[in-house]
Design a protein that fits this description.
It is a single chain. This protein is mainly α. It has 13 helices and no strands. The chain has helices at residues 20-68, 74-124, 128-131, 135-158, 160-179, 182-189, 197-236, 241-251, 257-270, 275-305, 309-323, 325-329, 331-349. The radius of gyration is 29 Å and the shape is globular. The chain starts with 19 loop residues before the first helix and ends in an 8-residue tail after the last helix. Residues 353-357 have low confidence and may be disordered.
Length: 357
Amino acid sequence: MPAAPLPDPPARDPAWRISAQAWWALLGLAVSVMVLAAFGGVLLRAFWIVFGGLLLGLSVRPASEWLARWHVPRAVTVIAVYLLVLGAAVAVSLNVVPAAESGLTQLRASVPAMLHTIDAWASRTPGLSNALPTLDDVTTRAAAWASTAAFTLAGLLQSAGEMLIEVLVAFILGFFVATAPLKSAENLLAWFPARMRLTARALAATLATDLARVVWAQLAVAAFFGTFIGIGYALVGVPYALTIALVGGVLEVIPFVGSMTALVLGVLSAATLGAWPVVWTVVVHQVVAQTEAEFVSPALLGRVADLHPGVVLVGALLGIWMFGIVGGFFAVPLLVVIRTLLVAWHERQAGGTPVEA
């Protein structure tokens, strides 16, 4: 009896076949890339606004919760803080604008005499007369720089209206974050899978605490720098020491930006008095800046953010280089978010729950 023929082996899918889930993932990736390419700038600005409002609300929320124990409505506390910030901004503007106009007028009047003095000294020094540019060259370059600066200032003034609207939106978002009840956060956590809610709740609490502390630490560092640079410049006799201290202190919220701004403004202001005031201005600035970098910033910002000062410097420089002054402003909070997420991931890999980073 002949043997029955063997059945054909079942057809197998080729190894190169892509599943429907993978196709949907590729389609979603392609759509995401197209959206980012078309609306990347708008999405980035929206992210800065939302992140800024979140930081503002988290920094004010502890005060609103503490005063709520004394039956002070959270909204009243937030509005009071906003009014204080607005008053401080108006006070800084009222001091900076007149002082800047007067300082520029005084500097413009003293620059020709300073240039003639330097030119005469260079002409009497062998070898320097050919190495240094002539007075006409300096004047031509200064005029070109002034023209470029005027166009840049015009562009900044044109975008000032948009910036004010974005800041207003960030303040409104911060108001809702600071006054929202805890039930709202629980409603957001309901969107997470049940197995991830405990981890998400602990991570959100850690991020909220760390970001609020970082904001207050940055403000404390900026206040230290502005106070002591103002005292030092006043002792040296730098004109408009208070105004320079206000500008440097406000900008020091962005790490190292306020310090460099105070140095440049201090040197320009001291240059109207002579060479030795410039030298003492640089010395005072270095003492205050080094004290901040070696002691104050590590004690406040470094302890709260758990970041090395070198990491903070590199992060601020990268933020400014990639996203401008806004990137430098948000560099440290973003570094804290990245550090917290990495610590949480490490804890999860080790089998624990990231309760505290």
